[in-house]
Amino acid sequence: MSFSLINILESTSVLAIFYLFYSLSLKKETFFRLNRWYLICSLLFGAVVPYVNLNLGFPEPFFINTNFYEKVAGFKQGYNELNAVIIYAYSGKLTWIAIQEYVLAIYYLGILISSVFFVFGLGRILLLILRNSSIKLGKYRIIETSETIVPFSLFKWIIINPEKHSSEDMEQIIAHEKMHAFQLHSLDLIFVEVLVILFWFNPFIYWYRKSIREVHEYLADQAVVENGYDHIDYQKLLLSQAAGGRFLGLTNRFSYSLSKNRLKMLTMIKSKNISKTKFFLAIPFAIAFIFFFVNSSDLVKASIARNFNSNSIELNDTIAENQTDDTIEGEVYFTVDEMPKFNGKDQDEFRFFIQKNLRYPIEAQKNDKEGRIFVSFVVDKEGYVKNVKVERGVYPSLDQEAIRVVKLSPKWEPGIKDGKSVNVKYTFPIIFKLK
Asked: Which helix (H) or strand (E) holds 158?
């Protein structure tokens, strides 16, 4: 799993599309249980899938521009795609690295603040439960308090001020809150609050939280009426509770989001079963997102392989996997009858390979280090890259990056002299430049 700006944008886009679909197609339907599961599942999907990078073995689609996929997925993995064997970074006080650090600091600060609010709210509820007397009602606990609060529930605890309600109203309110507890709505709320902490920057997280709470209230209202309580009396109770007292977060509460929408849902004609087919319309979106975000590394490999593998040279056939040591047998030449070929072409093709894989070390950027490094290597008789050295270096992390990227080289076609394969040495510059 990775975390970057592109992941944040992807997650925001996924949640936006799924929530927009819910708002336009599902929100007014009376399939409250299905709506609940749609919201929870799509929220989990949108919050997690863009941060996952797996290889699922999907075939590369003929209708997809794989260059576009390569750029998007390559950006996610930190590749630098340049037009020369030069890599640039911005120097000065406001560098891209500095911006990333500031953004990351703000992100962690947001997590800290959100966590404090979460713990504070949960602590207030626990204090209410511990400070006040309780009455056991089956597997539930009725917590009676003198504070002016809106009745609410958290798991098996139902908190209410009995002085503010008649005995008849108390019975209906408790029945409502028992439905929240029975249907485990508190688990949904805790789950959502954790995502709010982790993704506090995403506005759709808050809209999801609001909609999930609304669906909880619809489910509890529906269950109360279906269990035999008078429909009209219950509607009057909802109206009377509209201007209730103080509310504590992280809970299901009786008068949430009043009551205009709740009254409307109580009186609406039930949606036809054919409307359930709307839920299946979200499946193509999910498949597309999985293919695009989760399988992107497959597409990168396929695209790179197509660009660098036309002569059966595989990217995984590298020096690291095929060479046990740097021993060179025989004489090393600088020029031969037929120079080694990279991917069936001349050495300029190797420069393109370098530029696609080169990265400017963050540590060097922070220390304003730049310069021209001369790297040498030998293409041996079998075509493997060996004896990679920095002939003239600039800075340790830059030198190491130059060596790393050259050692990524796939197998070459060896040079030919007098009809035999021979060892050929190359030297070329890699330039790290701050702008």
From this structure: strand 157-160
Nearest partner of 253 among 221, 223, 227, 280, judged by Cα: 221
* Res 351: pLDDT: 78
Fold of 312-434: TolA/TonB C-terminal domain (3.30.2420)
Q: What pLDDT does residue 338 have?
A: 87
From CA 146, how far away is CA 149, in angstroms rounded?
9
How do strand 134-137 and strand 140-144 relate by DSSP bridges?
antiparallel
Q: Where are the domains of the chain?
A: 5-292, 312-434
Q: What integer pLDDT is reported at residue 36 of this predicted model?
A: 93
Chain centroid offset of residue 209 CA: 18
Token pair of 132 as six digits: 């006040």
pLDDT of residue 107: 87
In one-letter notation, the amino acid at residue 102 is: Y
Spatial distance between the Cα atoms of 434 and 87, rounded to a whole number of angstroms = 8
How far apart are alpha carbons 336 and 314 in whole angstroms?
A: 25
List residues bridging with 374 in a β-sheet: 392, 429
Which residues does the chain have with pLDDT short of 50?
1-2, 55, 57-58, 60-67, 69-84, 91-93, 245-247, 256-258, 296-324
* pLDDT of the residue at 325: 54
Other beta carbons less than 10 A from residue 379's beta carbon: 29
Rounded CA-CA distance 376/387 in Å is 8
**pLDDT value of position 98:** 60
The amino acid that residue 78 corresponds to is G
d(CA 404, CA 394): 15
DSSP-derived secondary structure for 253-270: ETTTT-THHHHHHHHSPP
Give the count of alpha carbons within 13 A of 283, CB side only.
6
Joined together, the tokens standing for residue 355 give 């530029």
CB atoms within 10 A of CB 262: 23
Q: HSE-up of 120 (CA within 13 Å, CB side)?
A: 6
